[in-house]
Design brief:
alpha/beta, six-stranded parallel β-sheet, elongated
Length: 346
Amino acid sequence: MKQHLYKKIMTDLKNQMASGQLAPNSQLPTEKEISETYKVSRITSKRALTELEQAGLIYRIQGRGSFVKEQGIFSTKKNSRILFLLPFMNDLSLGNFTEGLNPLFENNNCEVMMSNPAFLTGKKPKEILEEFDGLIYYALNTTDYLDILFELSLLNFPVVVLDKKLYDLPFPTVYSNNFHGGKIATEQLIKEGHEKIAYLFGSSDHPQSVRQRYLGYIHALSQAHLPYHTSLNEKIPLDLQLGEYLEKEQITGLICENDLVAIDAMRALRKGKKEVPTDISVIGFDNIQAASLVDPPLTTIAQDFKKLGEIAGTLLLKWIEKGIISSDQKVEVRYIKRHSTKEIKK
């Protein structure tokens, strides 16, 4: 009898889908509502929905319910709204994730609202939930907005984090392999004959991504049995005294936490009558637009911002549509040789 009833429920729901009464991405009745309508147990109504899900006709979102599936890779509802919070949204030359995000969202009928993370200030989690279907959040600092992000996690709201892992929260993270970036930058200088290589921080506040680059730098030095490395708390001057400091320490290679720091370092060296790369080789990180335009053009480690954006969008859509919470995704970086580094002749 139970088998007959769950099949009847399935048939009725299939007919409603076929007729358009239940349109793609529309919500199905809950297990409780089906139980009351058909006067069956929750076990029977649950089995009917499970069978429909296994047949690929519906998808479930944890905490929200069951929805009609449509054909294609994704079946997000029409005009889904995505919130994309980026601290440097007014200067995408620092990292343009939209090249990967926008085509994906356009193809899946998603409306994207870009804003600064300060958008979350004063917001209630339920306001975000009512206005948006998902969030991509670039974490400038791993402690910012921790309270509201945690409350969103309690509401099972889909969030994908960019750049840094928020270990206190259950959100998947898409980030570059910063450790490998620091390692290959250092290895390249070692191959060019440099034995005293310093790491230049832009500030005393070392974000997670910068620490990973620094650890990659130390790892490469250790593998090459080169004992010298910059201490994490060592303050190398980023001013006119930079050249004097590097000369005193006999440093010939300089790895900077990012391209902006590298460009500032080259400017300070030039003012101090030091030539790049004649006197010292400099490597940046990020491959921002300005890296190829400075004099000399900056050797750097490139992040694949397009791929980072595309993967973040893909993970978010999977979560919104199917309730699938993906694992963290690490994207490889690549070394770009320009003219701010040179081989040391021995």
